[in-house]
Amino acid sequence: MSEYNWCHNPDCHKIETQSRVRGTGDNKVLRTIKIKVGRYGNYQPNIWNYFCNQHCLHQFLNKFGQEIANTYSVKQPSETPIKVRTEKYESYRYKHNGNDYVRTPYQATRKIIENSS
Ligand SMILES: [Zn+2]
Predict the structure, then answer these.
(1) pTM of the shown model
(2) Which of 20, 84, 94, 112 could form a disulfide with 101 if both were Cys (CB 3.0 to 4.6 A apart)?
(3) Rounded distance from Cα 13 to ligand 1 centre (Å)
(4) Is the pLDDT of residue 116 over 70?
(5) What spacing in Å lies between the alpha carbon of 115 and ligand 1's midpoint?
């Protein structure tokens, strides 16, 4: 049993591609793309069950992004507890000496997020 969706970009049917042409004789139209659910595998949720390609997804987001942001608004930041270790390591800078760039070592630090599990 196959399930289908129509591409959710409201302007999908205005994009001129051969794959959208339907109809006979002088009654040709550009039609919204029909999408087979699970066409890229069955992991859920899969955005490609609703949009025929990235262009249509982005046209949709450009048109409705404000409404989506309002519907799923973020009023405060979220936080994930982590453990951080600081590590020193030798890195390099390139200094110009008038004619050339000279590779110069220096002691740098980096933060390492340790596995929280
Ligand atoms: Zn589309």
Answers:
(1) 0.70
(2) 94
(3) 7
(4) no
(5) 41
